[in-house]
Design a protein that fits this description.
With about 150 residues, the protein is of the alpha/beta class. The protein is about 40% helix and about 20% strand. It has a five-stranded mixed beta sheet, sandwiched between helices. β4 and β5 form a beta hairpin. α1 runs parallel beside α6. The model has no long low-confidence stretch (mean pLDDT about 95).
Amino acid sequence: MTSRASEVIARLQGKTLGTAESCTGGGIGHALTAVPGASNVYNGGIISYCNEIKAKLLNVSEELLNTHGAVSATVAQAMAQGARKALNTDIAVSVTGLAGPSGDGFGNPVGTVFVGYADENTVVSRHFLFSGDRDAIRKQAVDAALELILENI
């Protein structure tokens, strides 16, 4: 993961990045800030573990949260857009998902993760179904977020 984070930092030169994390609890930020020089491109992150923070800090609409659930493609995209605006960055990535021990009321099983990406021209999300224990799911989600950044910059 450190090499992937290093690659992200190296390729971001001239651009800024922000993160919005739910199930990873700051894991993306941790991976990025372990790389020397991260402060030149990484503005920071918002850990939005509950819906109230997703709504208040990331401007994710309560209607979206109630209709689609926090673990959804549309919320991942809204989180990335909200982080980009709140953190004043060129690019933002978001992660929302279920690391366990149980699924949600929308039929998503443990291991369901959505990663969002937003920049000036692009807003996308990816759906993943990871396996393993809570720690393994969170690590896979961090890795997927770093990979999504690399695919889009």
